[in-house]
Amino acid sequence: MALDIDLTELRASNGSTDAAVEVPPNLIATNVNVFSGDLLLTCTYSPEISPAVYQKLARGRRAFSFCPELTHLDKLGFKLCTIFRLDRVQSLVVLTKDGSPHSMQIPLMVQEAAEDVGFDKNNIRYFCLEGGEVHEFSDLAVRKARHYSEIQKLLPSAKLRKVTQILRAPGGCPNDRAETYESVVKNLEEEVQEVREAVEKKDIDNLIEELGDVMFNLYLMAQIADEDGKFDILEVLDRVSDKMIRNHESIFAPIKLKY
Predict the structure, then answer these.
(1) Fewer beta carbons below 10 Å: N end or C end of the chain?
(2) Structural domains of the chain in order of their starting residue, each with its CATH number
């Protein structure tokens, strides 16, 4: 069945049932000859947090669990390496609880084991439960989780997005809540002119401030679009990055991006 999982459909299923489900068999205690085909590996929390999401992901897959509080993670790594080396697994879906320092170690061990034995990481998908929702995260996100310095660089952008969301939310700023696509365009025209003036005056401190105002208005427009269900700032950033790579193929072709 490969990895044909529709995230929108998966999110729609979240909360559709409160029926309790049993935690699947412990991966560590299971004989390695059992592992074949399409698998689901979950932390022991997730089936209880969202039975519907768990059941959706488990459909057509053999499900197993791992409890990092009770078993050292090295054992998980060794077991996964053995499973991957047997070359009987077609795909693996991982479901964890976001924010749990224990559960979020599971994707790290899956990634490391796959890389150690050469298992195709395109055949792995990662999902987590957070804030009552299910989210998918990439192999690159798992890689970034190993490097705090890289995560630190992402925080200013995440902070501005959260600030914009709060200002637009009920109880936020009346002026920002009243903004529209058209009014933001007018704001941008004014802010770009102020950027021009700062450049002409060689006023670096003011240039930083005015560029910030431009950024806020871009995030504001994207937030309006997000509320309309059209797109969000992450899609904008991802699309422009891909566009620049395509437009400069000769430059990026020999580079292995680790953004």
Answers:
(1) C
(2) 7-144 (3.40.50), 149-243 (1.10.287.1080)
